[in-house]
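Troubleshooting log. The previous run stalled partway through. Resubmitting the same two chains, unchanged.
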Amino acid sequence: DAKTTQPPSMDCAEGRAANLPCNHSTISGNEYVYWYRQIHSQGPQYIIHGLKNNETNEMASLIITEDRKSSTLILPHATLRDTAVYYCIVRAPSGGYQKVTFGTGTKLQVIP
Amino acid sequence: SQTIHQWPATLVQPVGSPLSLECTVEGTSNPNLYWYRQAAGRGLQLLFYSIGIDQISSEVPQNLSASRPQDRQFILSSKKLLLSDSGFYLCAWTQGKGYGYTFGSGTRLTVV
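Second attempt completed without errors. Output:
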């Protein structure tokens, strides 16, 4: 699996958009980009995933660059409850086992 | 719908004591199952994965072992806990194409 790199921490004002970047320069053609978040002392929660097109759901938007070497998770109107660690991973859509490494993610602090 | 159960939520154990953490998945069959550990302020470290009953692979040498006696049951064990075994343990499952990870709520283990 391709490795990802993320900034260790970010701050965002409440009500503003939070843009969390992720680099995955060695991503393979069939690997999806997934985003998860982990609120303190809980298991990571799935947010969104995509292959090459931009995606949007009720939680967030995912923007993937044309070369697929990086992506940005956008929380359009950040709230205090969005304070969490956000993980970006890449994974191929096969049914078998894949070794996926979750790095240390980006710790997002939403400030009132 | 699929659900994943992990227990206990917290556990305090003395050094040298045994450990058994259980994880069960409902609403699916033949899932890929994982055990992760998260030390304080660190990322998720993959410990074990399983693609089927009695099929366990270890990612890192350690004081722990895993077993899968049933299709939807995954157990993490130790015969004698070490202080370094303290951490937040997460069970997760995946299945099928394009599906990401679903994590349990985690067990916070403190070895004293």
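Takeaways: The longest strand of chain B covers residues 44-52. The interface with chain A takes residues 6, 32, 36, 42-44, 46, 49, 51, 57, 59, 88, 90, 92, 95-106, 108 of chain B (CB under 8 Å).
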